[in-house]
Amino acid sequence: MSAEDDRRHMRHALALAQRGLGNVWPNPAVGCVLVKEDRVVGRGWTQPGGRPHAEVVALAQAGSQARGSTAYVTLEPCAHHGKTPPCAEALVAAGIARVVSALTDPDARVAGRGHAILRAAGIAVEEGVEARTAERLNAGFLRRVTRGLPLVTLKLASTLDGRIATASGESRWITGPAARRMVHALRLSHDAVLVGSGTARADDPDLTVRDLGAVRQPVRVVFDSRLSLSPDSRLGRSAQEVPVWLCHGPSAPETARAAWRATGARLIPCGEIGGHLDPAAALTALAAEGLTRVFCEGGGQLAAALLGADLVTDLVAFTAGKVIGAEGVPAVGEMSLAHLAGAKGFDLVATETVGDDVVTRWKNRRFV
Question: What are the respective helix, strand and coil percentages of the chain, to the nearest 5?
Answer without folding.
Answer: 30, 25, 45
